[in-house]
Amino acid sequence: MKRLVHAVVGCGRVAPNHVDGFSALPDVEMRWACDRDLTTAESLARAHGLPRVTTDVHEVLADPEVDSVSVATGHATHHGLVAAALEAGKHVLVEKPLALSAEDGAALTSLAERAGRVLSVVSQHRYDRVVTAIRDWIGAGLLGSLVSGVVSLQCGRDDAYYAGSYWRGTYAGEGGSALVNQGYHALDVTRWLTGGLAVVGAVAGHTAPRGGMETEDTLAALLRGPQGALVTYQVTVASSITWRTRVEIIGTGGSVLFDLDHPGTLHLAEGNEELRAAAAELASAEVEQAPPGIGYYGISHRRQIADFAAAVRDGHQMIADDRAGLETLILLQDIYRVAGHEVAAPVLSALRS
Ligand SMILES: NC(=O)c1ccc[n+]([C@@H]2O[C@H](COP(=O)([O-])OP(=O)(O)OC[C@H]3O[C@@H](n4cnc5c(N)ncnc54)[C@H](O)[C@@H]3O)[C@@H](O)[C@H]2O)c1
């Protein structure tokens, strides 16, 4: 198997999950830790034994042996860094969202296609065991026709989380907050399970504003699936609870209730005998240990990174490819637009230009 040489650009909170995922694979060399802040890059490199450190992404991209790059920086920088990496011939795993605007996201998917490089947007919960099982059950008709869904995320992010960041809580840097950042996964997974979602209505609010936070802390939306299933979706970052999701998918033949917490848990599967037997089998499967780092990011960066590395080698279509990332970006921007929140302004201007 050809050795894969990988670099991480952006060495902040989520970067250890990328290093962990690539380090867990055979025939992968983790070479570069790149952060515009040298101390941050050095700290990641030291903690995980990465041999090279730089503050300049161009040094990474000029390394002819680097095959692939993780982009794990603030949202507004994704487009420029991903484009530069693809133009340098690298495969790219970019943290969600793909870009701040659908126009920029579409430009990146076209660029990846022209360059013949893998571009994947992190959506690790698509790889959670409970989520992949439910997707299989829906595909096999075990839930019948989907008619309804109830999706919620409550999490707590304090003043320091926003005040201490160069990008969070600002339209220019984050492009929104509760929906595009913490709420991204629940939206993406539900969209994947239902086969697509359109926006019926949405409202965004500042229910408990933090110092310096101009973006929404709470958002609620009504969404519709392709066969008419109605889904209520709500997210807040103003809870006292650090992280709790609930996703309920209701069909004419069965219902499931699960979460995207760690470990992801199936709380309920009611319906026919086949569904109950599949749920019992899932419940008996071993729970994997979380990697070091922030527990509520879950364990599935490892699985998406394994899928990414395999796609780089064999070209197969990933579960979380760039198209999936673009479609979720379009949906969340539609939600912001319908919510009529200020966050829609840069998005709409980008789409018009
Ligand atoms: N998948 C998940 O569960 C998950 C969890 C957390 C964060 N994220 C995503 O990961 C990304 C990063 O989030 P974070 O919490 O790690 O942010 P962070 O602010 O902790 O880290 C980002 C780092 O990028 C560096 N950086 C910015 N611009 C750079 C550039 N041009 N070149 C090199 N370095 C640069 C910053 O100095 C900073 O150290 C975001 O897109 C976020 O939404 C995803």
Automatic annotation (TrEMBL):
Superkingdom of the source species: Bacteria
SUPFAM superfamilies, A to Z: Glyceraldehyde-3-phosphate dehydrogenase-like, C-terminal domain (SSF55347), NAD(P)-binding Rossmann-fold domains (SSF51735)
Stretches assigned to the GFO/IDH/MocA-like oxidoreductase domain: 132-256
Domain spans labelled Gfo/Idh/MocA-like oxidoreductase N-terminal: 7-121
A GO MF label: nucleotide binding
Listed name of the protein: Oxidoreductase
Organism of origin: Streptomyces antimycoticus
